[in-house]
Specification:
Structural class: alpha/beta
Shape: globular
Radius of gyration: 18 Å
Order of helices and strands: HEHEHEEHEEEHEEEHEEHHEHE
Helix content: 40-55%
CATH architecture: 3-Layer(aba) Sandwich
CATH topology: Carbamate kinase
Oligomer: single chain
Low-confidence stretches: none
Number of domains: 1
Mean pLDDT: 89
Number of strands: 14
């Protein structure tokens, strides 16, 4: 790239940098976002995006899952993963496995990747300072929780001091019982609690499609009402349902935009945030314009 081209890229990014300076952007980083690339390479690129966002005045907050990693450890321990409507059935042994993977493996990996660039990331789970309060969703799902409340004080303190919080999605009830909570749901709840400008989901698809196997049917923009109709019609199904429900709820409750992006694309966050064309699928209310 020539010097002139590099300058043009910076000029294109300038109005977006100005618009989003001081704004919170919640990024859900799923285990599936690593599909198709080595974990270290994908994570290193993701970390650089976050560091750049922070450097230009934005406040990224990372909420991560770890579904494939949890399933992998379960398999090695001789347990078979079972899902219902995209949610993992979680018995007492599985909640212990989920805590080990999310808090003991995935969270430190993300924090370490960011902190290569400076001491700016802090890892925590929903158990810390009562960040995520939860109740059991349904007896048939075991220790799978629904979010009842987010206590944003610890996150707000980190943001005020220019740290990047990295949140593992284990929550607790009033008695201290731990629950495995869908990371898509938690990301939406945290975005609402923080009044985020954007809620971004990184996954292993380019966005939502009207026809799953046809890339020409990619949906670039859609309203919450239209998105709900796609769920009712069966266009959105399986593991995408919690993600879509979270997007719809967050946008209706004050988050200006939600995005579903392909986390396998190098620097996909920067392409969405700082370019005119954007990328993936954007969910926004009819009152919000680009």
């Amino acid at each position: 790239m020539s010097a002139e081209s590099r300058a043009a890229v910076l000029v294109e990014a300038l109005p977006y940098i100005q618009r989003f300076a001081g704004q919170v952007v919640v990024v859900k980083y799923g285990g599936n976002a690593l599909a198709g690339a080595s974990d270290s390479d994908a994570l290193a690129l993701f970390a650089k995006d976050l560091v750049l966002m922070r450097a230009v005045g934005m406040h990224p907050v990372v909420v991560h899952g770890g579904g494939p990693q949890i399933s992998g450890l379960m398999s090695r321990l001789g347990k078979t993963a079972e899902f219902r409507d995209g949610l993992r059935v979680t018995d007492a042994e599985t909640i212990d496995i989920a805590r080990m993977v999310l808090i003991g493996q995935v969270n430190p990996q993300i924090v370490s990747a960011i902190n290569i660039h400076g001491p700016i990331a802090v890892g925590l789970s929903g158990e810390d300072a009562g960040l995520i309060r939860a109740v059991a969703r349904h007896a048939d799902l075991g220790f799978v929780g629904d979010v009842t409340a987010i206590n944003p004080m610890i996150l707000e303190g980190m943001i005020a001091n220019d740290f990047i919080p990295v949140v593992a999605t284990i929550g607790t009830d009033a008695a201290g019982q731990a629950y495995n909570i869908n990371a898509d749901t938690v990301a939406g709840a945290i975005a609402e609690a923080l009044g985020a400008e954007k809620l971004v989901y990184l996954t292993d698809i380019e966005g939502l499609r009207l026809v799953v196997d046809d890339p020409t049917t990619l949906i670039r923009q859609i309203s919450p009402d239209e998105l709900e109709r796609l769920v009712v019609d069966g266009v959105v199904a399986g593991g995408m349902i919690p993600k879509v429900e979270s997007c719809v709820g967050a946008v209706r409750r004050g988050v200006r935009r939600a995005h579903i992006l392909d986390g396998r694309i190098p620097h996909v966050l920067l392409l969405e945030l700082f370019t005119d064309d954007g990328i993936g699928t954007m969910i926004r209310s009819k009152e919000v314009f680009p």
